[in-house]
Design brief:
This protein is of the alpha/beta class. Helix content is about 45%, strand content about 15%. Strand 6, helix 4 and strand 7 form a beta-alpha-beta unit.
């Protein structure tokens, strides 16, 4: 791990902190949302840091915090929420946050206006308020089982990255830095769409060869979409893209893999989640030209009309190879 530059935390200035000093640092952290990922972050952080946890829909007798009372003292705010409530919550607390407070989102979707978590942060936080996005293979069940997890932190400066490095330094969550916020945002958003295709082919028993082909086709389209949306070339070939795609496409805990299986069984009821919602927002807001991406169009067609799914995959492959033979 790298040494830190001068940073303010909990009223203490620390400079050039070495690895063996990381264990002495404690942050005041506000966790927003106490679902699966909120609980996973609580598991990772509770032994080292001072935690306040807020949930919009409190349950049981858990001692949830009052948002407006604890936001002003937070060093880090973790948005363990779907992307849709981000705007409302940020507008509630933006004026209350310390200028040095770092806002971090793990949300992997689009809101009803077609905006990413990063765009919502940029539009609703003060211009000098630091924010970051944390994406990668981070299945909550595995985190709470004390297994390894991996993420990319997208942020504009190393000071924010170092703060999060220190925050999680005692855990099994390993974090890399990238400045390509658009790249990791669209990688992780679109991987939920492509992960459904893996569930479809597994349910249809189309084989491991087909799964291998899908990996290549999905990444090629992801790379093109990321660049079309302002990300850097090859951004999807890292943790937020390839890493999270493989995890979501193959995990027994994956909601989107199970959605794909259900769609292949032609079950059209209650097909919900970030992937189907992403498809809806892309079409509704015309975020990019979907005609350029055949696998995306196939998945969208199945989600919209889940009938004759096996035939749709066959026709897709026939069209792909007919087109390639002309080239």
């Amino acid at each position: 791990m790298h040494n830190l530059t001068e940073t303010e935390s909990s009223g203490t200035t620390y400079r050039a902190i070495k690895k063996y000093d990381y264990m002495t640092i404690s942050f005041k952290i506000l966790i927003l949302g106490h679902g699966e990922m909120g609980q996973a972050m609580e598991y990772l952080l509770k032994d080292r840091h001072t935690l306040d946890i807020w949930d919009k829909f409190p349950k049981n007798s858990y001692p949830y915090t009052i948002l407006e009372e604890n936001a002003p003292r937070a060093d880090i705010v973790l948005f363990c929420l779907p992307v849709n409530p981000h705007r409302e919550v940020i507008q509630q607390i933006a004026s209350l946050l310390k200028p040095s407070c770092l806002c971090v989102s793990i949300a992997k979707g689009l809101d009803e206006t077609g905006k990413t978590a990063a765009q919502i942060f940029a539009e609703n936080l003060p211009s000098d308020q630091p924010y970051a996005l944390l994406y990668g293979p981070m299945i909550s069940e595995e985190i709470r089982s004390d297994r390894y997890a991996f993420g990319q932190l997208g942020c504009g400066n190393l000071a924010s990255f170092h703060r999060i490095q220190v925050c999680f330094s005692h855990t099994k969550l390993f974090i890399e830095h990238t400045t390509d916020i658009a790249g990791i945002s669209w990688s992780v958003i679109m991987k939920n769409v492509y992960a459904m295709a893996f569930g479809m082919v597994d349910e249809l028993k189309l084989g491991d060869n087909m799964r291998g082909y899908l990996s290549v086709a999905a990444l090629q389209e992801l790379n093109q979409i990321v660049q079309a949306m302002g990300g850097q070339p090859n951004s999807p070939y890292h943790l937020a893209g390839l890493g999270d795609l493989i995890t979501t496409a193959t995990s027994e805990h994956s909601h989107h893999h199970e959605l794909g299986r259900r769609l292949a069984r032609e079950e059209a009821h209650d097909i919900s989640g970030e992937g189907p919602h992403t498809l809806k927002m892309i079409h509704q807001h015309q975020l990019f030209n979907t005609q350029n991406y055949p696998l995306f169009r196939l998945i969208s067609d199945v989600v919209t009309y889940p009938h004759n799914v096996r035939l749709k995959f066959h026709n897709y492959l026939e069209q792909i190879y007919a087109r390639s033979s002309k080239n």
